Amino acid sequence: MNQHYQILEFHKILDMLANLSANDITREKVRAITPTSDLAEARAEMEKTSDALGLSIQFGAPPFHAFQDMRMGLRRAKSGARLSLKDLLEIATVLRQVQSLSDWYDRCAGVESSLDDLFTQLAPVPFLLEKLDRSILSEEEIADAASPALAEIRRKIGRSRQKLRDTLDNMMRRQEIQECLQDNRVTLRDGRFVLPVRAEHRGKIPGLVHDTSATGQTLFIEPIAVVDANNDIRLLEIQETEEIERIIEELCTECGTWADAIIRDHEVCAELNLYFAKARLAEQMHAFAPTLTDDGVIILKKARHPLIPYKKAVPISFTLGDPYRALIITGPNTGGKTVALKTCGLLTLMAMSGMLIPAAEGSQISVFDHVLADIGDTQSIEQNLSTFSAHMSSVIRILEQADEHSLVLLDELGSGTDPVEGAALAEAIIARLKDNGAKLMVSTHYQELKLYATQQPDVENASCEFDIETLRPTYRLILGSPGKSNAFAISEGLGMAKEIITQAETLVSEENTRFEQAVAKLEETRKELEHDRDALRLSLQQAEENEAKLREELERTQKDRENIMEQARLEAMRIVETTKAQSNEMLTELEQLRKEKEKASFAEDVIGAKGHVKRGFRKMYETANPVTDTADEDYVLPRELQVGDTVLMADTKQKAVVAGKPDKNGMVFLQMGAMRTKAPVGKLRLVAGVEEKQKSQQKQRSSAGRVSAQAARRGTMELDIRGCTCDEGVYQMDAFLDRAVMSHIATVTIIHGKGTGQLRKAIHQRLKQLKYVKSFRLGTFGEGEDGVTIVSLE
Of 250, 37, 65, 73, which is closest to residue 150 (Cα–Cα)? Predict the structure, then answer.
């Protein structure tokens, strides 16, 4: 492996990936992975890994088997060679892998991905898989079902052996035979059934002697009476062997016929396994896909070193390449400078290899022709090189290779020699690398380099934060601020005498002291600004929350106002209807009186009374409606209203159905549920006409039966029982699963939360008891992890 990749520990990432691979061929592919500088190739590999992760989250990870590399065996079968039963079983495993991947892909129908081309290359051979499974029981045994002839031969052998045993058992029951036997057991010698006869009784049992005991006291004799039966069994066994050989030869021929297709499937399965292994690694690292470019710009957000456990790693964020090309990282020892360098280099190599990186979404990685690193102590006793000499030798090689398409990572540049010369040399090296166009990150303790970073427009300072109160590093990377080495504070905290610290402080040059004081003041200012920024962020968050609460309160107030207004309107309408009924009674009485009186003046009085009452009704309708008219006065009905039209009352926003033609005063009767009311035409907005309503009713009638039939069988895919007791949760789950089975739903999700785990345990115990539950598992990354259980139903 490339020496610089080794320094960045890229091989450890490949080891993690190999451990997630299912077979040796995939592991070979993993070890052959090399970061590519081709942007299109890197993007294609990244897309396949991302799609593999997405499919795994949506449909569950596909099954991968630990099959052996059978490509050579298949080529031998193609050439007519005979394979062992073990080889045939391995070929069956490969075929089973192809079939299971093809079946899994069928479940993903309708979801397009960059892996479609690989999946469509799979060519299952189900009849050959079924034949191999049916024919072979183990590496030493062929099944009776391999062929009808073999099954018949074995049945004959079984019957013949049983008949022979019965004959020998009858012989041993005779008294004269029992006296001659060493023990009452039938044994096998050379594949033939014999009796153990004492040597002195040899002449009493006629037959063939096949063997003697070690002491010579026992002879194993095949009685004459069973010689023919033993011969028949031997002939049948020979036929069995010949049939087995024929079956194996036939299976080898079939495998040879399909050898090319199986070899291609072999390669496709291994390649798919590689991408899904990358997806599993991304899941374990909580990784995301960065944006890939070739402009030399790196933007990392909350990036974590992939070899540090997720919960222990401290995320760092920084930008390199735009607007500055060099990042100078300073700070105390063990503060995280080297980890920051390795994180940048290792995540770049992972992205260039098509892997997702443990960084937040929105991160960006550029591909480089060269990723060059000089990190760690590389002194060599054999080559008589000191630490400084070894570092300089490595830096010289880097200077020879670095160009505008290079990422350079240098740890403690210029250390190991005189500080003045070392700092000057380090500054010159950084300047040369910048002139070559390289993007670089450098860690150092030199004051000169901190000052150099402040003077150069394309160089940025960064520091690894150190808590002076606890004397411990926080491992946070702070951009724009140089760091202090804090050697005096650390030494004093470890127990160094105060007078020694004081004397050492007097020996530091005045210029360095002023610079350190400036750095300390800058650090204090940064902390104050960071504190103020956090306070402003908190205030903004509280303001947004208050705004959301006020908006909800306003919406609730408006809704309450509308409800109160509608209730008032309904109450007023009720009063009007009551008054109308009373008035009708009174008019009826007047009409009866008119019939009794024949005077014309009396009839005119009655007619006048009716008109007066109707005018009163209209006034009561208008005054009973407390809703303010806010309608658009420019609105004009597209046509005259008809009975059955659906209209919207502009002032109350309520829908109603036209129940009569408008009268001469522009009033029209409306039906609102069970209530009948009257409103002016000018306040109505046409929603749907009679024709639309008739079409809607016909459509509803035609689909009513189908909808009702489907509604009974339609289920939901999730059940949330968080907060339930164990008994309540199990009861709700049973009812939910019954509905899911009736709805023919194959997979459902039970959301039980993490908590103490008691509810999850009760749910899992119940699922084990249900016959229609095919399998269940905890959720994966992106599904809810331990807080949900995914259930597959029969």
Answer: 250
Reduced to 3 states (helix: H, G, I; strand: E, B; else coil), residue 719 is strand
The arithmetic mean of pLDDT across residues 511-539, rounded, is 63
The CA distance from 731 to 735, in Å, is 7
Per-residue pLDDT, 282:
95
Instruction: Report DSSP letters for 237-266, one per residue.
Output: HHHHHHHHHHHHHHHHHHHHHTHHHHHHHH
Q: What type of residue is 524?
A: E
Specify the higher pLDDT residue, 395 or 635.
395
Burial 561-574 (b: 16+ CB within 10 A, else e): eeeebeeebeebbe
Q: Residue 9 has what pLDDT?
A: 92
Which H/E stretch holds residue 767?
helix 758-769
CA angle 389, 393, 396 (to 5 degrees): 135
Note the pTM of the prediction, 2 decimals. 0.60
When pLDDT is cut at 50, 70 and 90, the band that residue 779 belongs to is confident
Residue 598's pLDDT band (boundaries 50, 70, 90)?
A: low
Nearest-angstrom CA–CA distance, 96 and 133: 10
For residue 313, give Cα distances in angstroms to 64, 307, 466, 476, 765: 31, 9, 16, 10, 36
Return the amino acid letter for 394.
Answer: S
The secondary structure of 600-643, three-state, reads HHHHHHHHHHHHHHHHHHHHHHHHHCCCCCCCCCCCCCCCCCCC
Task: Determine contact, residues 786/763, Cβ cutoff 8 Å.
Answer: no
Measured between alpha carbons, how far apart are the two ends of the chain, in Å? Answer: 50
